[in-house]
Amino acid sequence: MAVRPVRIYGDPVLRQKSAPVTEFDDSLRALVADMFDTMAAYNGVGLAANQVGVAQRVFVVDVPQEEGPNERFAVINPVLEKREGHEKGEEGCLSMPGIVEDVVRAESLWLKGFDEYGKPFERKVSGYLARAIQHEADHVDGVLFTDRLSIVTRQLLRKKLDELIRGELPPGYHPAKGPKGPKGEGASS
């Protein structure tokens, strides 16, 4: 499989509402495998297809759990329902390197979707996994985590966002290898 370049803030594909997947074929499974490789290379916990330039309703997550193995799976054509509670937590985004802010998200929800083989699933998710899933589901709708911030906070970030649009990446960012930092700090996707 391959590591694909992550699209950076300002790229129009990040604002596109992605198309539903209708073919569960080898090309979809190759995309999912590439997305897992890319997410790992960039030290992320989630990645949406439009972040690698593919405007399809696909995302992957690899979220550490307090106990047991990581929650690692792909979601095709996600539907989020029955959101419950609210919690504020730190989020970042692989498409917006150097920007981390607190975002309010639902504490738990029901996730419906398909795996990369077309098998439907439904499950309740909560905590950090729910946060990552909401972040990625926003991506496939063309919504970025900064859209969920207050107007004042967005204004304070304007300079950094404008720098990203101009292609000025933060010091220490290495697109081919991914940003430095421990995996699992904040919801970076």
TrEMBL record:
SUPFAM superfamilies, sorted: Peptide deformylase (SSF56420)
Residue sites binding Fe cation per the record: 93, 135, 139
Superkingdom field: Bacteria
InterPro entries: Peptide_deformylase, Peptide_deformylase_sf
Known catalytic reactions: N-terminal N-formyl-L-methionyl-[peptide] + H2O = N-terminal L-methionyl-[peptide] + formate
Residue stretches of biased makeup (Low complexity): 170-179
Keywords on record: Hydrolase, Iron, Metal-binding, Protein biosynthesis
Gene Ontology biological-process entries: translation
Swiss-Prot/TrEMBL cofactor(s): Fe(2+)
Sequence intervals crossing the membrane: none
Entry note: cofactor: Binds 1 Fe(2+) ion.
Gene Ontology terms, MF aspect: metal ion binding; peptide deformylase activity
Active-site residues, as the UniProt record annotates them: 136
Region (Disordered): 168-189
Keyword rRNA-binding found: no
EC code: 3.5.1.88
PANTHER family in alphabetical order: PEPTIDE DEFORMYLASE
NCBIfam families recorded: pept_deformyl (TIGR00079), PRK00150.1-3 (NF001159)
Function according to Swiss-Prot or TrEMBL: Removes the formyl group from the N-terminal Met of newly synthesized proteins. Requires at least a dipeptide for an efficient rate of reaction. N-terminal L-methionine is a prerequisite for activity but the enzyme has broad specificity at other positions.
Name used for this protein in its record: Peptide deformylase
Organism: Eiseniibacteriota bacterium
